[in-house]
Design goal:
With 166 residues, the chain is α/β, with parallel strands linked by helices. The chain has helices at 2-5, 22-26, 40-48, 64-69, 87-94, 102-119, 137-144, 151-163, and strands spanning 11-12, 33-34, 51-56, 78-82, 123-128, 148-149. A four-stranded parallel sheet has the order 4-3-5-6. β5 (123-128), α7 and β6 (148-149) form a beta-alpha-beta unit.
Length: 166
């Protein structure tokens, strides 16, 4: 509430796992609220009319209930891959260990997206759950040839709507 009183025209979080807060917070605000990049999955599915690959920080934590809260129905084809078992990503981002090597993380994320596409060749687009993944979206696109959506694309969408002069 304080952010909208200070003039914010969109309020957002960055972690995809905050989707349970979407409705509760949105109802309290007069401005749009964006809780999670996962909200894009149904829309992306309709854009590409096919399976959506979801890259997440932790696929064990990204349960069906999170997807349902984001509006993903049982008939929306998805394929989920977590990065929690990938040392290059997990150590700096999830475990707070070691040094962050962006080149190694980029290679890890790109390789993981390629592996997911090999397992599910019908993936038409990717959605990145984790707020740490937007810098690696170009690498995913280059490796897979598929469009990539993340929290930044969702926030840009919301900002475009509220800032459109028409």
């Amino acid at each position: 509430m304080k952010l909208q009183e200070q003039g914010a025209n969109v309020v957002t979080t960055t972690c995809g796992f905050l989707i349970p807060l979407q409705d509760t917070i949105a109802k309290q605000l007069r401005v749009p609220f964006v809780a999670s990049s996962l909200l894009q999955i149904p829309l992306v599915h309709r854009f590409v009319h096919g399976r959506v690959g979801v890259i997440t920080a932790n696929d064990e934590a990204l349960t069906k209930s999170y997807l349902q809260l984001a509006g993903v129905s049982d008939d929306t084809p998805t394929a989920v891959l977590g990065l929690q078992r990938h040392k290059e990503f997990a150590d700096p981002y999830l475990n707070g260990a070691g040094e962050l090597d962006l080149e190694k993380v980029e290679a890890c994320v790109a390789h993981a997206s390629e592996r997911l596409l090999e397992r599910f060749p019908d993936i038409k687009a990717f959605v990145c759950e984790c707020h740490n993944l937007p810098p690696f979206a170009p690498a995913i696109r280059r490796k897979t040839g598929r469009p990539v959506f993340d929290v930044l694309s969702l926030v840009n969408f919301a900002l475009q709507g509220v800032n459109n002069p028409f």
